[in-house]
Amino acid sequence: MTHPFSVTTRLGLGGVALLLVLAGPTLPAAASPADAAPTPAATTVEEQRLDRTAPREILRRSGFDSFAPRFERALLGSGGYAQAERTVTRHASALWRRAVDRAQGRGPATGDLSRGDDRPLYWARLALSRELRSWEPRFGLSDEQRKALHAALETSSRGQDGLRFPGQRVKRVLVTGFDPFTLDRDVRIGNPSGASALALDGTLVRTAEGPARIETVVFPVRWADFAEGAVERALARQLPRLDLFTTVSQGRQGRFDVERTNGAWRGGFPDNENAVSTGTVPVDDPGSQPQWTTTTLPYRQLTEADTGRFPVYDNTEVTEIPAGGSQPVTRPDGPTPGSASRAGGGGDYLSNEIAYRATLLRDRLRLPDLPGGHLHTPVLRFGAENTDPETGTVTDPDFERNRADIVGQVRELVRTAVGTSAPRP
């Protein structure tokens, strides 16, 4: 995930409360009249963008504008908290399944936007979230309960509670993607990592070592969710069962990068809520937290294989404050002993952070033989005549071709990685 400031011009997203938080959010018991919230909360910054022209067009032209009205009607029919929780989970899961099916050519296309578009899922999720936030139930609903319903909506609509791996004869691969971001710069944009997640979820790839099953999840571009352990909740149970994982986000123009080193530093670039966060990546047990973690993906094979039209680089650059120093220094060949992180190969935004958290979790779970790390995709660009967000269209042939090529190359890179990795013990 790129952004324009400081060391993160080199890279950003697309992107442990950690180690001990292995389960999803616990749903609270029924509210008493004393703790019931009298009014719903205000809409979020992300939800407010739904009123812009491009998001409305994306929802209409994909047919995903039908999800929120159905969800609203179902919520109005909820007679209690348990029923509301079932409604939220059912509709959120259906949204994820429909986005995956549409991307993989199953079921009706519903609209004239291409099937591989990741943006309808993002905007439809926000439409459901806004309906839930403004919903005034007929029964008492505490702030804690409303927060738990939103957590269930996020988890289910991101594929995080639907991971299904087969038995031991099929290799198991987990791939993560991200929502679109920098939407105040251009609200039309998508994220090829999210599109890749939809295209790959539940698919089999053939390798010389046998078939591999890919499961995927998508993460938000929000500092707070990461600080609250969203990555660890989604991955902690999965990593010991896997043969390979890779987090994926959008990175530089015209190239893929396998990020060799990840740093424990947040650079503060605004997230999708326009929130900022600067400082050491917040994890459980900070006293044992390393400044750097390292990929175990087969980066040499990934850079040498013919996987598609974009070049693939082994990116070893980092920015550090050397031991005994006070100013950041960019190193082309990785960190020096005792240095403090200021940017990993993937920058200091949420792409670096998801790579840091996932590989730190791998190390804290004592899985040294598990191949895992981060892959940055090329930036998904509109055509040369469609770059102005004020006058441009929501899609064009170059945009569609670029996304399809990036997604296809992500698939080939995953196939290469799992096919060349040594068998797990």
Concise description?
By secondary structure, this protein is an alpha/beta fold. The chain has helices at residues 45-48, 53-62, 67-76, 81-103, 119-134, 143-157, 192-200, 223-227, 230-235, 299-304, 350-364, 397-420; strands at residues 171-178, 203-207, 210-219, 244-250, 256-259, 261-263, 265-267, 278-280, 292-294, 312-315, 318-321, 329-331, 340-343, 372-377. Strand 2 (203-207) and strand 3 (210-219) form a beta hairpin.
Number of strands: 14
Mean pLDDT: 91
Q: How far from one another are the termini?
A: 34 Å
Based on CA atoms alone, the radius of gyration comes out at 21 Å
User: Helix and strand string, N-terminal first?
Assistant: HHHHHHEHEEHHEEEEEEHEEEEHEH
Beta-strand content: 15-25%
Helix content range: 25-40%
Largest sheet: 7 strands, mixed
Please identify the structural class as seen in this structure.
alpha/beta
Count the helices. How many?
A: 12
Strand order of the largest sheet: 2-3-1-4-14-5-10
Poorly predicted sequence stretches spanning 5 or more consecutive residues: 3-12, 14-39
